[in-house]
Amino acid sequence: MDGFGSDFSAGGSGGKIDAGTIMEQVKVQIAVANAQELLQRMTDKCFKKCIGKPGSSLDNSEQKCIAMCMDRYMDAWNTVSRTYNSRLQRERARIMRTSTVQHWSRCTSSAAQHPLVCHSHRQMRPVDSDP
């Protein structure tokens, strides 16, 4: 079986599918697929760059070229990944700040019309009450 079927039918959940478990399995599968793609691209690129005439073994210069190529490829990939993740985190933080400002703006502008003011996403209290 593919790993999903047995997890869904077994367990104490009474046949219910656990969304958290499914998400974790999907994340693992995506990570594995990404690693496989990275390895395949790196292999293709370095093979084309370093192997002039394929044979039964690699000579010393081909081995060195492959090692250097793979090191450079991984370094570049790691740099791009770190930069991408950093930008993604900054963008998420910016979006959260923007949505928080919008949320507070809506809450305070509606305070004149309604006796409640938002103090968090879950809590509201009367304007004239003490904290």
What's the helix and strand layout?
Layout: H1 5-9, H2 19-50, H3 60-111, E1 116-118, E2 124-126
Antiparallel strand pairs: 1-2
Helix pairs in contact: 2-3
What does this structure look like?
- With 131 residues, the chain is mostly helical.
- It has a domain at 17-50 and 58-104: Helix Hairpins (Orthogonal Bundle).
- It contains 3 helices and 2 strands; from the N terminus they run H-H-H-E-E.
- It has helices spanning 5-9, 19-50, 60-111; strands at residues 116-118, 124-126.
- Strands 1-2 form a two-stranded antiparallel sheet.
- A hairpin with a 5-residue loop joins strand 1 (116-118) and strand 2.
- The protein is elongated and about 70 Å long.
- The termini are far apart.
- The model is unreliable at 1-12 and 119-131 (pLDDT under 50).
Q: Would you list the SSEs in sequence order as H and E?
A: HHHEE
* Range of strand content: under 5%
Strand order of the largest sheet: 1-2
In percent, how helical is the residue content? 55-70%
Question: What class, by secondary structure content?
Answer: mainly alpha
Please report the number of helical segments.
Answer: 3
Annotated CATH homologous superfamily of the domain at 17-50 and 58-104: Mitochondrial import inner membrane translocase subunit tim13 like domains
CATH class of the domain at 17-50 and 58-104: Mainly Alpha
How far apart, in Å, are the first and last alpha carbons? 57 Å
**Strand tally, please?**
2
InterPro entries: Tim10-like (IPR004217), Tim10-like_dom_sf (IPR035427)
Membrane topology: Peripheral membrane protein
Subunit structure: Heterohexamer; composed of 3 copies of TIMM8 (TIMM8A or TIMM8B) and 3 copies of TIMM13, named soluble 70 kDa complex. Associates with the TIM22 complex, whose core is composed of TIMM22.
Main location: mitochondrion
